[in-house]
Fold:
Amino acid sequence: MATELHETIFMAKQERHKNLFLNYKNLNIFPVELLKDEGLQFLERLYMKRNSLTTLPDNLAQKLPNLIELYLHSNNLVIIPEAIGNLARLQSLDLSNNALQVLCPEIGRLRSLRHLRLSNNQLKCLPPEIGDLQDLETLDVSMNQLTSLPDRLHRCLSLQNLTADHNLLSHVPRQLCWLHRLNQLSMAANRLTFLPLDLGRSREMQFVFVDNNVDLKGLPSYLYNKVIGCSGCGLSAQALEGGLGEMLGEELSEALVGLPAEVKVVGSETEHVVPLEELAMRTLHRIYHRRPTELSLLPPITLPKSLRDLLQFPLGHCHRCSQAMFTIIYPKLFPLRDTALAGVHRRTTVSFVAYCCSSHCLRTFDLQG
Structure:
């Protein structure tokens, strides 16, 4: 095997191969032949799947500076060296099916990266620096132990496909709704109780899979005309604490389990007065919403950071008139069993929920209108 490996690498150097296949070679360490002398300066794609590697060399980028794709699926990698960030041309990195418990922040220096696969590892968190990958199109972090996603993930402006199935996620960051190229979101088999009000508002978003989140009983009505997966959702008996059950009805209150803490008022058709704080936030938003996302120009009054963040990323937009909402919602329930999708989604008890900005929009909203 060693002789065959040596000959393969020797031939690749002699003939200046751009692709090198070292899959299924039973490698325990990274081949030193790849790192000798000047390395393989011309190599663009390196395949090392199904080996037993535990780490990567620190001088990988120095010896293989032109790597575009690196496939390390199904090894025993425990840690990735900080030097990984020096692979300036890398566009695709597959680290799935390894034993990674942490991902170094230097991953955020791979500014050319378009595809990052980290599924089936032991990751409990992701570095915020992932948000620096503005060319990233595909991110797969399924089958890990994640309890949250990075707040800066919304900066991955090119992201099209996000897969986070089989983790421990309890919520979806509402900032993800600002990823206007995101086409597919898959968060099946997590611990979701609530989805962002604006999820599905983007025309580009077409596929949402949240199957087997047993505590999830409400889907934003924006998802009604999308391809959705919700099998196994809403099967628990969890209910919303407080008096909402009596005020709104048991079914609607269950659909609102996990409501964001920013929601201070849940309105109804009989409530016609919008609170002053909500009106103030809406006014400020109309003035500043066309400013850069960092809100570099402050309002003429000092706002707490929590309200500044809310001004930048509202709770959502009215499902009827698109008015931004900040502290109050007017929800309207449409049980899936009563819609045209009932025959498609049978093993679920979820409902669509329209979130409106006023009692007028609540009364006049039509799911199929």
Q: What stands out?
A: The first strand starts at residue 19 and ends at 21.
